[in-house]
Amino acid sequence: MLKMIELPYPLNALEPYYSMQTLELHYQILYKGYVDNTNKTEEELKKAREKNDFSNIKCLEKNLSFFGSGVILHELFFENMGPAIPTEPNVELMQQIIKDFGSYTAFKNQFTEASKVVEASGWCILAWIPKWNKLEILQCEKHQNLTLWGCKPLLVLDMWEHSYYLQYQTKRPDYISAFWNIVNWNVVNNRFAKI
Fold this sequence. Notes:
The protein is built from seven helices and three strands. By secondary structure, the chain is mainly alpha-helical. The chain has two domains: 20-79, Fe,Mn superoxide dismutase (SOD) domain (Helix Hairpins, Orthogonal Bundle); 91-193, Iron/manganese superoxide dismutase, C-terminal domain (minor pseudopilin epsh fold, 3-Layer(bab) Sandwich). The longest helix is centred in the first third of the chain and has 32 residues, at 20-51. The chain is globular and about 55 Å long.
């Protein structure tokens, strides 16, 4: 049974860049919904196995992929943000960013522009691709589409409207710009160190 992670900061810790009201809605209602629906789907899959009745397997597997991926990405998102204290990529991650994108500025510009044009509901992700031994920026639609198998997400930005609309409404670029003020690079550095 999945349980909700505890936020590593108080609900008001990301202000003014990410409002308490938005974070409270995002964490306590929307993220909780993904956890609850993943657990519900797991229970239904268990019953299907016990009864050897897989007549609804297509729907159940689709739900598991959607809700489960929503849980994972939301947890990465909440953890890779933090109060606006100066953090930055460490030497190892910065060297890899420069190697793969040419410069930190080029990486940040590409991530920002990719975030702006994520279609509908989706995410922008800085991921390590072990097969290619390099960093890539991915746009993930919904929670599970358009990924690369085996990628390891390091930095994720939720671009679903629920993640910013209360505070930024239709001003997606302002939300993305504000995000750079609350990236907790210490968490991203730790993720990179574990690949």
